[in-house]
């Protein structure tokens, strides 16, 4: 795990679990579930990670292992935060905080206060965010943890910058920079250089913005921090553009595009390599199992294999696009591919927690099933590819794995049907169903298979992140589309020729997390 060989680590943990179970070592089993969940979280498999954490937590609570309960609750809270389930995240963080305070574990208490502050910052509840980050800072200063104090200063700077109090933000950023430099924490130094560059950009002090962004570029190149390098180069390009130095802005933006592609390619290659490794392990294990059993029950084994093969093929076609499934069967793996023109659909249910309190667990699952079943039927009409569901979120895309000229129009039409479908359910069921919030964005993605045991066709790239931002900034019962989707529909020969181009309401430029201000439109 520490070497980053996540597929191997996960395989060993999974093989260890039944041995621990046979030895009746419940705590050992729970620790293995927790370790597996950590890896799944690093791989972005949040749903599976949450399942493993909950298995571990159940055993820890049974054994009254307070420290382990606190650690597991914290990790579950972090997963909920990543999925934007902020109410659940706060619940788990506060549960862990109570245990850590009872144990007088100040270091862990400060980390949890920091996590809670981050959630309130995401919710734009800046007074509460400042309060919790301030409490965390007090403890970290008491413990004389310079790196953690620097991180708290940086967090406070981010909040004040979001509030538009640039003078206070500058004060905290400079404080954090001094401590990061004293501890030689290079990742923190680069991040602070970027924060200062962005802040001076907002203050229209472009000379200082360039100075800090150049320092960020230099240190990021020395240390190999490509994500921070990409951010610094992107802001440098915007600064040159603001100065109307368009030639330099163009050159810098070209470099940003190259870095963005490099990072996307590295992430995709790593995922494909992990998938291939796991597939090879599975093949070897299956071959060995067949060899052990064939002498005793050869005929029975062959019949079972034929039946299993047919079942697997049917299942494969149900969870993967036909083209990808065929490639997987022929080659044993499927190559990740880049798709230039794709429209991504992202939705979630507003008030999910509130509705869940009105329904029994089975009723809640049944309602989710009926809603997603309706979504599946609608997107199938438009040949849109369902990617996955994560909790109450639904992700789909058009334009892959087969190119489709009308991808933007198809997704908007399907989204409109989904919105109406949910409005009709609301009229029928009242408070016992959900309100849907939808976001749409068009651009390029990388698509491929994740995993080898439970195959999942997934998509990656900034287009997916921007679609998620469109959804987060939408409102219940509305479809929020990006500028790129809007422009694509208005110049699309398909939509204009068919006379089906929808009308839009311009919302203006809206602040989106990690994206700055983006133009957004409601579909009328």
What does this structure look like?
This protein has 21 helices and eight strands. The chain is an alpha+beta fold and 524 residues long. Strands 1, 2, 3, 4, 5, 6, 7 and 8 form an eight-stranded mixed beta sheet that branches. The chain has helices spanning 6-22, 26-42, 46-62, 66-82, 86-102, 106-122, 126-143, 146-163, 166-183, 186-202, 206-223, 226-242, 246-294, 298-319, 322-331, 352-358, 361-381, 407-429, 462-472, 483-491, 493-498, and strands spanning 337-350, 385-390, 393-398, 435-450, 456-460, 479-482, 504-512, 516-523. Mean pLDDT is 84; it is low at 266-282. Helix 17 runs antiparallel to helix 18. 70% of the residues lie in helices and 13% in strands. It folds into two domains: 6-217, Serine Threonine Protein Phosphatase 5, Tetratricopeptide repeat, CATH 1.25.40; 336-523, Nucleotide cyclase, GGDEF domain (Alpha-Beta Plaits), CATH 3.30.70. Strand 4 (435-450) and strand 5 form a beta hairpin.
């Amino acid at each position: 795990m520490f070497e980053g060989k996540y597929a191997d680590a996960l395989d060993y943990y999974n093989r260890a679990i039944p041995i621990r179970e046979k030895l009746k070592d419940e705590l050992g089993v729970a620790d293995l579930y927790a370790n597996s969940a950590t890896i799944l979280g690093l791989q972005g498999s949040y749903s599976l990670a949450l399942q493993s954490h909950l298995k571990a937590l159940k055993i820890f609570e049974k054994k009254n292992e307070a420290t382990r309960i606190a650690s597991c609750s914290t990790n579950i809270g972090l997963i909920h935060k990543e999925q934007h389930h902020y109410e659940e995240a706060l619940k788990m963080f506060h549960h862990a905080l109570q245990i850590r305070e009872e144990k007088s574990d100040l270091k862990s208490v400060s980390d949890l206060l920091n996590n809670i502050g981050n959630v309130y910052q995401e919710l734009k509840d800046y007074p509460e965010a400042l309060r919790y980050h301030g409490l965390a800072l007090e403890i970290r200063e008491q413990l004389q943890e310079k790196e953690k104090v620097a991180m708290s200063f940086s967090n406070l700077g981010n909040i004040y910058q979001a509030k538009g109090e640039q003078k206070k933000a500058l004060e905290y950023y400079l404080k954090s920079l001094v401590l990061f430099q004293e501890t030689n924490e290079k990742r923190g130094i680069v991040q602070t250089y970027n924060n200062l560059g962005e802040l001076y950009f907002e203050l229209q002090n472009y000379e200082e913005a360039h100075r800090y962004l150049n320092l960020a570029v230099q240190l990021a190149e020395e240390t190999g921090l490509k994500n921070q390098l990409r951010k610094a180069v992107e802001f440098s390009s915007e600064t040159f553009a603001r100065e109307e130095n368009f030639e330099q802005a163009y050159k810098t933006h070209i470099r940003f595009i190259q870095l963005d592609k490099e990072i996307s390619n590295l992430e995709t290659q790593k995922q494909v390599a992990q998938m291939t490794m796991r597939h090879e392990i599975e093949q070897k294990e299956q071959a060995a199992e067949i060899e052990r059993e064939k002498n005793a029950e050869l005929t029975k084994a062959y019949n079972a294999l034929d039946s299993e093969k047919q079942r697997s093929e049917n299942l494969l076609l149900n969870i993967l696009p036909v083209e990808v499934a065929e490639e997987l069967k022929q080659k044993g793996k499927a190559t990740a591919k880049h798709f230039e023109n794709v429209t991504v659909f992202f939705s979630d249910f507003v008030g999910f927690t509130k509705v869940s309190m009105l329904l029994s667990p089975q009723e809640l699952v049944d309602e989710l099933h009926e809603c997603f079943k309706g979504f599946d039927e609608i997107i199938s009409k438009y040949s849109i590819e369902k990617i996955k569901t994560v909790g109450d979120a639904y992700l789909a895309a058009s334009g892959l794995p087969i190119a489709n000229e009308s991808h933007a129009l198809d997704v908007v039409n399907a989204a409109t049907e989904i919105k109406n479908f949910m409005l009709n359910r609301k009229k029928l069921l009242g408070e016992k169903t959900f309100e849907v919030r939808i976001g749409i964005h068009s651009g390029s993605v990388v698509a491929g298979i994740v995993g080898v045991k439970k195959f999942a066709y997934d998509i990656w790239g900034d287009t997916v992140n921007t679609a998620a931002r469109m959804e987060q900034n939408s409102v219940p019962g509305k479809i929020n589309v990006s500028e790129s989707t809007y422009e694509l529909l208005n110049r699309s020969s398909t939509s204009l020729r068919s006379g089906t181009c929808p009308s839009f309401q311009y919302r203006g430029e809206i602040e989106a997390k990690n994206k700055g201000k983006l133009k957004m439109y409601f579909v009328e």
